[in-house]
Design goal:
Length: 173
């Protein structure tokens, strides 16, 4: 076998490998365009009552984020979608922070976003679970007291918030 034959075989093999990689990338690419404008693989989607609930025993949190994606870089992204027009509320941010902590029991979330029909907001997911929990613990313990039927002496003067609160029946305010 001459050097020319070896070069031809090597070139042919390289061409076949190139075609196989192209076919794999073209037809078997798990990283597709998301509705949120980036390419990723869908890992989890909240599809209702039977969806997995993520928990953090350390902090006593449970959450069901709307979506979890894996980027080609290997990073995990948590998405919370609010089907409303308008801004992102502080309560939305606290919900996502709780979801980041709870979801990290299974996936190392490094990015998180809240989307509404008209806006989006990145939520810091780079902090430790302890730091994240510190940022929500006041309202976490307040809600926990209401759930337990205990009296709280904090009132957020918003009729809308009170009327739509899931703890309304247990609240003494």
């Amino acid at each position: 076998m001459s050097i020319v034959d070896i070069i031809n075989l090597t070139a042919g093999a390289c061409f076949v490998i190139y075609i196989l990689l192209w076919v794999k990338g073209r037809f078997f690419n798990v990283y597709t365009e998301t509705p949120f404008g980036f390419k990723a693989q869908l890992i989890y989607s909240d599809s209702g009552r039977k969806s997995k609930i993520f928990t953090s025993a350390k902090f006593g949190l449970a959450a069901k984020p709307d979506f979890i994606y894996r980027l080609a870089s290997g990073e995990f992204v948590l998405i919370e979608y609010k089907s409303r027009k308008g801004r992102v509320y502080p309560s939305d941010i606290q919900q996502v922070i709780a979801a980041i902590i709870a979801t990290r029991s299974m996936y190392p979330i490094s990015q998180a976003y809240i989307y509404t029909d008209t806006t989006s907001l990145a939520v810091d997911a780079t902090s430790s679970d302890v730091e994240l929990f510190d940022s929500i613990k006041y309202n976490f313990y307040l809600t926990k007291r209401i759930k337990e039927g205990k009296k709280v002496d904090v009132c957020y003067k918003s009729e809308y918030k009170c009327n739509t609160c899931s703890m309304k029946e247990k609240c003494y305010l």
